[in-house]
Every structure is written in structure tokens, then in C-alpha cells.
Amino acid sequence: MTKYKITKICEHKELIEQAAEWFHQKWSIPKAAYIESMNECVIGNSVVPQWYIIFHDEKIIAGIGVIENDFHDRLDLSPNVCALYVEKPYRCQGIAGDMLQFVCDEFHSKEIDTLYLVTDHTSFYERYGWRFLCMVQGDGEPEMTRMYIKRY
């Protein structure tokens, strides 16, 4: 486990604006979409969506989310880990792996034992116990995208 604490947005409504802006800057998804999803995780009674961030010196250095569908055509493959990002100076310190494990443990504790994610990476997620499942069609994407699965 890294030295950084993972913060659950569902327990910190005051961080929604800052977190939504950070995710927007990383993934170019409209900030309003992140705000809506984060508000849903704070006030909703459902397990999904969920959002997590890590701070260092009052700056967000990493984040990850879990949503129903990460913009692909396989609606049956849900929920989806999404938006995993670690700022470049903090990479290769185990932060991404810790965040993936944290999310998997969180959802396992809520009796959700299968998670999915889409990615263009071809070996990164295997290091953390994820396995390639199939190719999926991303919304508005000309090429198919890799779908991974993690089961407990």
C-alpha cells in the first residue's frame, strides 16, 4: 500500500467541484457529467456510481471511478471501473494498483464480485489480476476497445 490515503467522494460532498474539474481536465468529459455522477454517489442509495481521489499537498494526484457503463455497447457488462489516472510525477509508485485494489475490495464488501473496465492498454491491468474478456464498441469510436474483467 502506498503512503497516500484514498478519499471517497461519497463521504466528502465538499470535494465534488474540485474532483469534477480534475477528472474533466484529464479525460475531457464535461465537468457537469462528473458533478452529476458524484452528486448521485453522495445522495443516492445505490452502490454505483462511486468516485475516489488521492491528495498530496492539497492537490489531487490520482483518481478513479466506478460507473454503470463506460461509454460502450455492452450494457450487460457492468459496473465499469473508469477514469483511472495518476499524475506523471506520482507514477510507478503503486498508486494505480492500490486504487484498483481498493475499488475491488470496496465492491466485494458490497457483494459485487465482478467488475469490468475498457482500455487501450494491453498489459497494464494484467499486473493487477484483471484479464482480457472481449472487444467492445465504444460510443462513437471507429475501432473496437479492449474489455477487461476482475472477479473475486
Helix-strand layout with pairing:
Elements: E1 6-8, H1 16-27, H2 31-43, E2 50-56, E3 59-67, E4 80-86, H3 95-109, E5 114-119, E6 131-137, E7 144-151
Structure characterization notes:
The chain is of the alpha+beta class. It is built from 3 helices and 7 strands; from the N terminus they run βααβββαβββ. The chain has helices at residues 16-27, 31-43, 95-109; strands spanning 6-8, 50-56, 59-67, 80-86, 114-119, 131-137, 144-151. The protein has a 7-stranded mixed sheet with strand order 1-2-3-4-5-7-6, with helices on both faces. The longest helix has 15 residues, at 95-109. It is globular and about 40 Å long. The relative contact order is 0.15.
Strand order of the largest sheet: 1-2-3-4-5-7-6
The helix count comes to 3
Span between termini: 19 Å
Q: Helix content range of the residues, please?
A: 25-40%
**Strand composition percent:** 25-35%
- Rg, Cα atoms, Å: 15 Å
Number of strands: 7
Write the element-wise H/E pattern from the N-terminal end onward. EHHEEEHEEE
* Backbone shape: globular
Instruction: Determine the mean pLDDT.
Output: 95
What structural category do the secondary elements indicate? Answer: alpha+beta
Which segments are poorly predicted (pLDDT under 50) over 5 or more consecutive residues? Answer: none
Question: Biggest sheet, open or closed, and with what strands and sense?
Answer: 7 strands, mixed
